[in-house]
Automatic annotation (TrEMBL), chain A:
UniProt organism field: Oreochromis niloticus (Nile tilapia)
Localization per record: Secreted, Extracellular space, Extracellular matrix
Annotated GO CC locations: extracellular space
GO molecular function, one term: cytokine activity
Protein family: Belongs to the Wnt family.
Role according to the record: Ligand for members of the frizzled family of seven transmembrane receptors.
Keywords, sorted A to Z: Developmental protein, Disulfide bond, Extracellular matrix, Glycoprotein, Lipoprotein, Secreted, Wnt signaling pathway
Region (Disordered): 1-20
UniProt name for this protein: Protein Wnt
One GO BP annotation of this record: positive regulation of convergent extension involved in gastrulation
Coarse class of the protein's main subcellular location: secreted
UniProtKB/TrEMBL annotation, chain B:
Full protein name: Wnt ligand secretion mediator
Pfam families referenced in this protein's UniProt entry, alphabetically: WLS-like_TM, WLS_GOLD
Transmembrane segments: 233-253, 265-286, 306-323, 335-352, 377-407, 428-452, 472-493
Membrane topology: Multi-pass membrane protein
GO cellular component: Golgi membrane
Molecular function via GO: Wnt-protein binding
Domain Wntless-like transmembrane: 227-496
Compartment(s) where it occurs, according to its Swiss-Prot or TrEMBL record: Golgi apparatus membrane
Native source species: Oreochromis niloticus (Nile tilapia)
């Protein structure tokens, strides 16, 4: 247990810097496994690598209570986890459902933000999730990494607040065993911080365990992913606003308690979309680090997104890039933006047809679960790209 | 007659005393900043949405959000919609604290704040001035396996004040409103290990209950409690300070009673200040660890109120007694005009506190701010108290101004006196001004630290160590006022050097005063018979005679 346990607690001590820290034991195992996998089938390696933990967001997961005794099945059944992530999974079984939730909210938000773009964040299958487009280090990939990391921070801190996670709370306490004493002495309030730290361990584990030579394209891609993951996590952390309550003598403000309050995820999505628009193009520098393609711009901060490859053409279906094309997409005839038929259909033109749109109207609501509506039907024109 | 220590002590000794006090002051700040954790912690809770299948809701059934006897719950209300669950069947359950932790009496109090996550829907918006009717129950238990015991149950109303920052269009559906924090619950003692809150939002369309409150997505609670570590440090500090103030107080009063004359008003007021300081110091809170005394919070407020009003009265009387005019003072009735606002203001605050915390003894969910009349009443009390505070400060400033004016007036006549007396009085005036400055410095320090602790996020990183600014503020300021009271009692105690009438003829003036000055003063004191704690009194008396 001890070498495994050190994965998360040992990394806790680090501050906000991004230096990869790896345990030696896992490194050895990984080398062995990698070699074995390579020997067995070199062509399949690419497929294994294409799997992503994002798939947790698509495959419905059973509740972790079922796996409390038989710890192994859940983690080995889940596809798309890397070695390090599988280890974290074994240690923090109860977190897995929420990581899945986080991935799901991330993907949903991605689809909402990109609903009017040529690339609309559509999922392809259950293993690679977004398909081959993610193998290109483009802006879109950057956004996907960031928003899914953000989703995990959001979901883990939410689960914390709901009392679903046993290790939640106390930021300095290493193990739950120490909790009561620390809790009594200084309380353990900040679960946003916990969400942030856990997401960093889990999401980045996959990148950190790769060992590419410095300066290679794979290494650059790893740096890019790490940077964008961090940007996504920081977005949640930084958008959280501070709320305070005064509770001194006679309600005076001599005693004031403040806490972080998470913004709703739509705002995180919007914030990251802005970062997507201002993402920085990078290339591999001489020291193996990423540096700006155009030196005139300001270097990106940890909150900014970076990308290393130009985006593929999303207009046409392309098996090699993984682009799905915009054929069959709905568009807006009057709009001049990205959702306008001109841009969306890449000049190929569009088909027009009439359809009935059913809408709810004259509704009566309760705060939950009760809506009494009439159904109104209107005839609308719809346009579909050729 | 006797002069006070402040006049007769040599400068060297005075400096030593000052340095020792400063060291203690620094120590008080350090105890808070380095040893104690932050004073309070806020813990977030997200209410679990339990489903109450029973047609007629039973009062005895408690819904647990997690653990073995976990309730049947739903993840989101979309799920409820599909299952045909109604709003009246939803119970929001919150267990305090989070799993694997337990509450402790060391937490002293528990304050819970309520927040709604309400999604914006084009056709289901929050009505203006919407009221939320909350049916809430609080239960406790002391071990994980026993049954829940009801502690309180109440029907509460809270006013929703939410605003939507984005434009209200179809595009922005699903975004959340930004709602104000609602005061929810306050418990004055944390005697039990586990608490459970069950919240219902019953809908009744006919009575317009819980209609037009938007689409609630989640209920979030924030539980605030004092930290155990801070409580321990605080208690330790109180336990240490109580005997020190008590001893100096007894010593002070013994010196006063040893004198041949009866104590004057200023001396009595100083004793009263000492008593109120001791009253606030006595660590009766230790009992709260063993007993379930919910009134401890209110009692603490009252003690603090008594001390502060005593301190404010002391300043007024201190200034008044050094007002070197001809009027006969030394009677409490003279000061009713100045002390009146203090008493009235603190009485208003007391009533306000009773309305809020007093009622909370009975119903922990009560909040004076929840109803319109209550809000107006509370505001009225606070405004009246504010006006009283303003009046007080005007009076105080005016009196301080008068004292300084009179002192400078007296200074003009100093050259007429002999050299030794002149030096002596110069020294006295300097020391009084010095004490004034100390008071001012204490007040300024309080205000400055108050602002720092408000602006600052609560802690500073100093390399490896974390400095808790807020804790340092509390222990530092508390220590400061204790040291202040200590210093006043010490410096204003009658000096040993003038014990009895026989001694006064030998040692009338400290330091390098000559025999001449001795003879000079001797008749003054005997003729005027103005008994006062200080030499200034005698000076005034003499001037008045002349």
């Amino acid at each position: 247990m001890s070498p495994q346990q050190s994965t998360f607690p040992a990394l806790k001590r680090r501050t906000m810097d991004n230096r990869p820290v790896r345990t030696k034991r896992t490194g050895a195992i990984r080398h062995l496994l990698l070699a074995a996998a390579f020997l067995v089938c070199s062509s399949q390696l690419l497929m294994v690598d294409a799997n992503s933990w994002w798939s947790l967001g698509l495959t419905p997961m059973q509740r972790p209570e079922m796996y409390i005794i038989g710890a192994q099945p859940l983690c080995s059944q889940l596809s798309g986890l890397s070695q390090g992530q599988r280890k974290l999974c074994q240690l923090y079984q109860d977190h897995m459902t929420y990581i899945g939730d986080g991935a799901k909210t991330g993907i949903k938000e991605c689809q909402y933000q990109f609903r009017q773009r040529r690339w609309n964040c559509s999922t392809v299958d259950n293993t690679s999730v977004f398909g081959r487009v993610m193998q290109i280090g483009s802006r879109e990939t950057a956004f996907t990494y960031a928003i899914s990391a953000a989703g995990v921070v959001n979901a883990v801190s939410r689960a914390c607040r709901e009392g679903e996670l046993s290790t939640c709370g106390c930021s300095r306490a290493a193990r739950p065993r120490d909790l009561p004493r620390d809790w009594l002495w200084g309380g353990c309030g900040d679960n946003v911080h916990y969400g942030y730290r856990f997401a960093r361990e889990f999401v980045d584990a996959r990148e950190r365990e790769k060992n590419y030579p410095r300066g290679s394209p794979e290494h650059a891609r790893m740096l890019m992913n790490l940077h964008n993951n961090e940007a996504g996590r920081q977005a949640v952390y930084n958008l959280a606003n501070v709320a305070c309550k005064c509770h001194g003598v006679s309600g005076s403000c001599s005693l004031k308690t403040c806490w972080l309050q998470l913004a709703d995820f739509r705002r995180v999505g919007e914030f990251l979309k802005e970062k997507y628009d201002s993402a920085a193009a990078m290339r591999v520098g001489r020291k193996g680090k990423l540096e700006l393609l155009d030196k005139r711009f300001n270097p990106p901060t940890t909150q900014d997104m970076v990308y290393i490859d130009p985006s593929p053409d999303y207009c046409l279906r392309n098996e090699t890039t993984g682009s799905l094309g915009t054929q069959g997409r709905l568009c807006n005839k009057t709009s001049e933006g990205m959702d306008g038929c001109e841009l969306m259909c890449c000049g190929r033109g569009y088909d027009q047809f009439k359809t009935y749109k059913h809408e709810r109207c004259h509704c009566k609501f309760h705060w939950c679960c009760y809506v009494k509506c009439k159904r109104c039907t209107t005839l609308v024109d719809q346009f579909v790209c050729k | 007659m006797a002069g006070a220590i402040i006049e007769n002590m040599s400068t060297k000794k005075l400096v030593i005393v000052g340095v020792i006090l400063l060291l203690f002051q620094a120590f008080a700040f350090m105890v808070g900043g380095l040893i104690a954790p932050s004073p309070t912690t806020a813990v977030h809770y997200l209410a679990t949405k339990c489903v109450d299948k029973v047609k007629k809701p039973q009062q005895t059934k408690w819904f647990m959000p997690w653990g073995e006897k976990k309730c049947v719950n739903i993840q989101s209300f979309d799920e409820a919609m599909a299952k045909g669950i109604e709003a009246n069947n939803i119970v929001f359950a919150v267990h305090i604290p989070l799993p694997n932790k337990e509450m402790s009496p060391w937490f002293q109090f528990m304050l819970v704040i309520l927040q709604f996550d309400i999604a914006f829907k084009m056709y289901n918006q929050i009505a203006d001035g919407a009221l939320v009717h909350i049916d809430v129950g609080l239960a406790y238990r002391d071990d994980m396996n026993s049954e829940w015991t009801e502690m309180a149950h109440s029907l509460e109303q809270r006013k929703l004040s939410c605003n939507f920052t984005a434009t209200k269009t179809h595009e922005n559906e699903g975004r959340h409103y930004e709602c104000d924090l609602l005061p929810f619950m306050e418990v004055g003692s944390v005697a039990h290990k586990y608490y459970l809150l069950n919240i219902r939002l019953p809908v009744n369309e006919r009575k317009k209950i819980n209609v037009g409150i938007g689409e609630i997505k989640d209920i979030r609670l924030v539980g605030i409690h004092q930290n155990g570590g801070f409580t321990k440090v605080w208690f330790a500090m109180k336990t240490f300070l109580t005997p020190s103030i008590l001893i100096i107080m007894i010593w002070y009063w013994r010196r006063i009673t040893l004198m041949s004359r009866p104590p004057v008003l200023l001396e009595k007021v100083i004793l009263a200040l000492g008593i109120s300081m001791t009253f606030i110091n006595i660590p009766v809170e230790w009992f709260s660890v063993g007993f379930n005394w919910t009134w401890m919070l209110l009692f603490g407020d009252i003690r603090q109120g008594i001390f502060y009003s005593m301190l404010l009265s002391f300043w007024i009387i201190f200034c008044g007694e050094h007002l070197m005019d001809q009027t006969e003072r030394n009677r409490f009735s003279i000061y009713w005009k100045q002390v009146g606002p203090i008493v009235f203001g603190s009485f208003c605050l007391f009533i306000f506190d009773m309305c809020e915390r007093g009622v909370q003894l009975k119903n922990p969910f009560y909040s004076i701010w929840a109803s319109d009349i209550g809000t107006e009443l509370a505001m009225a009390f606070i405004i009246v108290a504010g006006i009283c505070a303003c009046l007080y400060f005007l009076f105080l400033c005016f009196m301080v101004f008068q004292v300084f004016r009179n002192i400078s007036g007296k200074r003009m006549s100093l050259p007429a006196m002999s050299k030794a007396r002149q030096l002596h009085y110069e020294g006295l005036i300097f020391r009084f001004k010095f004490l004034m400055l100390v008071t001012l410095a204490c007040a300024a320090l309080t205000v400055i630290f108050f602002i720092i602790s408000q602006v600052n996020e609560g802690h500073w990183h100093r390399g490896e160590h974390m400095v808790q600014v807020n804790s340092a503020f509390f222990t530092g300021i508390y220590g400061m006022w204790n040291l202040y009271v200590f210093a006043i009692m010490f410096l204003y105690a009658p000096s040993h050097k003038h014990y009895g009438d026989e001694q006064s003829s030998i040692q009338c003036i400290t330091g390098d005063a000559g025999v001449n000055s001795c003879e000079d003063i001797q008749p003054t004191t005997t003729i005027t018979h103005v008994d006062g704690p200080t030499e200034i009194y005698k000076m005034i008396g003499q001037e008045a005679q002349e």
